[in-house]
Design a protein that fits this description.
The protein has 373 residues and is of the alpha+beta class. The chain has twelve helices and 16 strands. Helix 7 packs across helix 10. Keywords: Acyltransferase, Cell shape, Cell wall biogenesis/degradation, Peptidoglycan synthesis, Transferase.
Length: 373
């Protein structure tokens, strides 16, 4: 099939998203409003019959003084990645972005490569010889994804994630943890939680932990807890204004696109998290917790309430987002992996993010500059 690409309206893009089971929450039109330092544009791919067959949200970041742009399609675009004629989809996009004075394009194909069951991940964590998840035999493979990676390389695309590190790329996570809901009852999902998770949920209930939905006025309290979490877990927190933009933009597009949950005990806020939903896919987006009163298990109670609500919204997949690739006991992220594995879901490896240098010299120069930051 031959594709014609052109910019589309926000309404056309949103209608396309609504007609699909799901696309990434980073590919909905409203996400552009969350990123004020980027210029957002919705692109549409039209087939020979004039039907909108694919769409993507591209974010354009200007390079000061150069009047050139870096283009980013996080976890997108939403096109037919299984087609044997991928060039007919990607080449029009590159041509369009080049006309916009873009010097480099980054995209994140939403394509799964491998999956590991919770039991396999648990065994790997316990194995002193296992160093990285990518080195552990996967429960299932997607051969077409490996073929797609080879095709992208032949087309001139370059994979961005370095071989080292902990599996968290500079952009979106390549390794995530997901709990499938499709075709399962809520009782079956709860039954797959490990013994510790079920015990902690009961302990929270017995202790009187209350999990409630929050609103815009609760964002400052969430953010205060989030900053505490950032200091403890050694990451740079986003400002409160970022979450306020998310709340305003995403909920204006769909009231259930973003939710805030708060876990209290005796009137004290102990944990909080945001949940995003697009179609049948729900994501645990940002989480926060205090070190106080951990014995009442507020984080387990919070997540179970979010999973329950996601199920009632019709979600077929609950996504815990990024996990570490390293299985090193010394890595502080391993505890987070253990927490997620306890849900009985599966670790998932995506194809990762890919760059295409439209201006090779500028692409390399900016890459070196960013590497030194």
């Amino acid at each position: 099939m031959s594709c014609r690409l052109k910019p589309i309206t926000r309404e056309e893009h949103l209608a396309f998203v609504g007609a699909r089971p799901s696309v990434s929450h980073l590919q909905v039109p409203a996400w552009g409003a969350v990123k004020p330092d980027w210029r957002a544009e919705s692109l549409g791919w039209f087939d020979g019959n004039g039907r909108l067959a694919g769409a993507g949200l591209v974010l354009l970041r200007p390079v000061p003084k150069l009047r050139r742009y870096f283009a980013y399609l996080p976890e997108g675009p939403a096109i037919d990645w299984s087609t044997p004629h991928l060039e007919q989809w990607l080449e029009p996009m590159l041509a369009h972005l080049k006309s916009r004075r873009v010097f480099s394009v980054r995209m994140g194909p939403p394509v799964v490569m491998r999956r590991w069951s919770a039991d396999v991940v648990k065994a790997a964590i316990a194995d002193p010889q296992a160093r990285r998840l990518r080195e552990v035999e996967a429960t299932s493979h997607e051969p077409q994804a490996f073929a797609l990676a080879d095709r992208l390389r032949r087309m001139g695309w370059q994979q961005t994630e370095p071989d080292g590190g902990d599996g968290f790329a500079a952009g979106q996570p390549r390794y995530v943890f997901q709990v499938p809901f499709a075709g399962r009852s809520l009782e079956e999902i709860r039954g797959d939680l490990n013994q510790q998770w079920r015990r902690n949920i009961k302990k929270a209930e017995k202790a009187g932990v209350k999990v409630v939905r929050g609103d815009a006025e609760d964002l400052p309290a969430f953010h205060q807890l989030y900053v505490e979490t950032a200091e403890r877990d050694r990451f740079v927190p986003r400002p409160l204004a970022y979450f306020q933009r998310m709340w305003t933009a995403l909920r204006a597009e769909d009231p259930d696109r973003m939710r805030l949950y708060l876990a209290h005990h005796d009137g004290e806020l102990l944990a909080a998290a945001t949940m995003l939903t697009v179609g049948t896919h729900a994501w645990y987006s940002y989480g926060a917790s205090t070190s106080r009163k951990r014995e009442v298990q507020p984080s387990n109670a919070l997540q179970w309430r979010m999973m329950t609500d996601a199920y009632e919204l019709g979600a077929e997949l609950y996504d815990f987002r990024g996990i570490t690739d390293t299985l090193d006991e010394a890595n502080h992220l391993l505890g987070l992996l253990r927490f997620k594995v306890g849900t009985g879901g599966r670790a998932v490896e995506y194809l990762g993010e890919w760059d295409y240098p439209l201006h090779k010299v500028l692409h390399k120069a900016v890459g070196r500059y960013l590497a030194r930051r």
